[in-house]
Amino acid sequence: MKLTAQCFRPPNLTRAVLQLTLTCLILMQRVLKAWELLEVKSVLRDKIPVVRRFSGGGTVIVDHGTVFVSFVCNKDSVPSLQPYPQPIMAWSSLLYDQVFHGAGDFKLRENDYVFGNRKFGGNAQSIIKNRWIHHTSFLWDYDEINMAYLKVPARAPKYRMERNHSEFICRVKDFLPRSAFIEGIIKAAGTHFSLRFVPWDAIELSAAANFMPSSRMLTRQELKAAIDAEPESLLSQSM
């Protein structure tokens, strides 16, 4: 998230950013309270980092099995594309249809990427006057134990149909080899952009000088306060 946010700042270059993570952490959406989204006591007990994200999008737990892909673009980077949430989402689904063609029943459903009716990719966006980000967290793999840190959100997509996490999500690795997945993303991006590979440290150095991060990690005090703020009726349900 930090690197993607850095790329969103000047200089205004178009970038496709592919990242992996080695750390288990929770990316939490901006507007809701922690107790609405997380099993906060378990998160505190197991010392799981929680980062409030700068972009839109839902709350997810990520680890070494998550693949992040972000498109950081100027408003005119994609010809004829209107820089608004739904047109960008529709454009992205056409791009990823090239990646997953023949691998499964790939669809865009209510802003999620799915195979059939099971989610494997969650999306987040940030749009300003002349620039936008489309960011995806792909579940290449995941540890089912980690899903217990997340509550089923009150505002879940209709197609979820109140399914628990294990029945709602799936793994990309069950449909596509990792090498084909990564190579497919690069190839699909190359049909829309002229690609030039840039080392991570070069991106960080060019963006770091004037960078003020807008994502931030929640403190233990903030998480403890979230427990105190949780309505008693919900506390009794979780006990």
Question: What's the topology here?
Answer:
Layout: H1 2-8, E1 15-20, E2 25-28, H2 34-37, H3 40-45, E3 50-52, E4 60-62, E5 66-74, H4 85-100, E6 106-109, E7 112-115, E8 118-128, E9 131-139, H5 165-168, H6 178-190, H7 200-208, E10 216-217, H8 220-229, H9 232-238
Parallel strand pairs: 2-3
Antiparallel strand pairs: 1-5, 2-4, 3-10, 5-9, 6-7, 7-8, 8-9
Protein name: BPL/LPL catalytic domain-containing protein
Organism: Carnegiea gigantea
Pfam families: LplA-B_cat
CATH topology: BirA Bifunctional Protein, domain 2
CATH class descriptor: Alpha Beta
The residue ranges in which pLDDT falls below 50 over 5 or more consecutive positions are: 205-209, 233-237
Which structural category do the helix and sheet elements fall into? alpha+beta
Give the % helix.
25-40%
The tally of structural domains comes to 1
Question: Number of helical runs?
Answer: 9
Report the major sheet: 6 strands, antiparallel
How many β-strand runs? Answer: 10
- Shape field: globular
Give the ordered list of helices and strands.
HEEHHEEEHEEEEHHHEHH
Mean pLDDT: 84
State Rg.
18 Å
Instruction: Report strand order across the widest sheet.
Output: 1-5-9-8-7-6
The CATH fourth-level homologous superfamily: Bira Bifunctional Protein, Domain 2
The CATH architecture can be given as 2-Layer Sandwich
Q: How much beta, percentage-wise?
A: 15-25%
Organism: Carnegiea gigantea
Protein name: BPL/LPL catalytic domain-containing protein
Pfam families: LplA-B_cat (PF21948)
InterPro entries: aa-tRNA-synth_II/BPL/LPL, BPL_LPL_catalytic, Lipoate-ligase_2_inactive
